[in-house]
Write a structure and sequence with these properties.
Elements (H helix, E strand, L loop, with lengths): L1 E7 L25 E6 L4 E3 L7 E3 L2 E2 L13 H5 L8 E6 L13 E4 L10 H4 L1 H9 L5 E6 L8 H4 L6 E5 L5 H7 L5 H13 L3 E9 L6 H8 L5 E6 L7 H11 L4 H10 L3 H16 L4 E2 L14 E4 L3 H4 L8
Parallel strand pairs: 2-6, 4-7, 7-8, 8-9, 9-10, 10-11, 11-13, 12-13
Antiparallel strand pairs: 1-2, 3-4, 5-6
Length: about 325
């Protein structure tokens, strides 16, 4: 990767995100982020993730700056040493020649960034990618924490079997603000509702589930009429952010500290096993399938969402699972 120029040195927060301006800025104590242009040789690459045949990330870094972000390992590959959330490289790539080669293949957009971070409003790199692929027959799957994706509903709806997922791991805005700089949960759910009503498959990605904090049943109850799939994923603290999250629990939820220590310092899985049973019972009472492997495309659009339990997927259920 070649950094070619500095576009801006201060992250401007769009007015549309004004409700987040009081967010915590855990990474560096300010709202500034270094934003740069970067030339890349290619924007679409094969992926071994269980979420598509290819992955595309129009940005490196992510100014949503989630405190638990699993993608922060990308710093190692991009040469960044700044705190995650405090930089964003805006990617520019050569023209995609022969986009028809992706016909029938699924391209997952947003595996290590949010393709609809606030800067997308200005730089439009995700929109540019969609325009380059439009009409190619590629299938797309988009993951976001934003409602900026509504801007692109028109073009997304032209793709076969398009799917969009929103991460929602709380209905509590105070906790949400403690964890990320993205838009409010209400705005995410409203975006999901609009996409679903426009006939585009949606996923409510309940992740990461924070023990004792995330109320997954309440989220499912709120989202189930507006999505085709509900994914459940446990909080994994194997990343470098473990100490920060544990410190947060110590300060804000000291009553939960023993539970977190059991789970994350002693490897106790009984909390997840018990939650698994509770959520399975909830799903049965709500008439929802509770399964460990599903592709929403194979289900009728109007069917109630399937609930996919993805707890400890990397250890317990290897392979075979398709996203959204
Ligand atoms: S929105 Fe996704 S990629 Fe961005 S910081 Fe949060 S978890 Fe990481």
């Amino acid at each position: 990767m070649l950094l070619v120029s500095v576009i801006a040195v201060t992250k401007s927060i769009p007015q549309s995100n004004a409700d987040n301006q009081d967010s915590r800025n855990w990474y560096n104590g300010s709202m500034s982020a270094v934003i740069r242009a970067t030339e890349v040789k290619t924007i679409i690459s094969r992926t071994t993730l269980p979420v598509g045949d290819y992955a595309a990330n129009p940005y490196t870094g992510c100014t949503h700056g989630c405190r638990y972000c699993y993608a922060c390992f990308m710093k190692r590959f991009s040469g960044h040493t700044e705190p995650w959330g405090s930089f964003l490289d805006v990617k520019y790539w050569p023209e995609i020649k022969d986009p028809e080669r992706y016909r029938g293949k699924e391209i997952f957009i947003g595996s290590v960034t949010d393709p609809y971070n606030p800067e997308e409003e200005r730089y439009g790199r995700t929109r540019a990618l969609l325009e380059a692929l439009q009409g190619s027959g590629a299938r797309i799957s988009i993951a976001t924490k934003s409602d900026l994706v509504l801007r692109d509903l028109d073009i997304i709806s032209t793709f076969p079997e398009a799917r969009v997922s929103w991460s929602v791991n709380t209905l509590d805005e105070d906790f949400r603000r403690d964890m990320d700089n993205a838009v409010s949960i209400e705005r995410r759910l409203e975006a999901m509702r609009i996409f679903h009503r426009n006939g585009i498959r949606t996923t409510c990605f309940i992740s990461p589930i924070f023990p004792g904090i995330t109320k997954a049943e309440e989220i499912m109850e709120k989202a189930k009429d507006d999505c085709n799939l509900i994914w459940l994923e446990n909080l994994n603290l194997r990343g470098g952010f473990q100490s920060d999250i544990m410190q947060y629990i110590r300060e804000k939820h000291p009553d939960l500290l023993p539970l977190y220590e059991e789970i994350y310092n002693h490897g106790d899985r009984s909390y997840w096993e018990s939650l698994d049973r509770e959520l399975s019972e909830y799903a049965a009472s709500a008439g929802l399938d509770y399964i460990t492997n599903s592709d929403s495309i194979s289900r009728p659009f109007d069917a109630p969402p399937a609930v996919v339990n993805y707890f400890y997927h990397e250890i317990i259920r290897k392979g075979g699972i398709r996203h959204a």
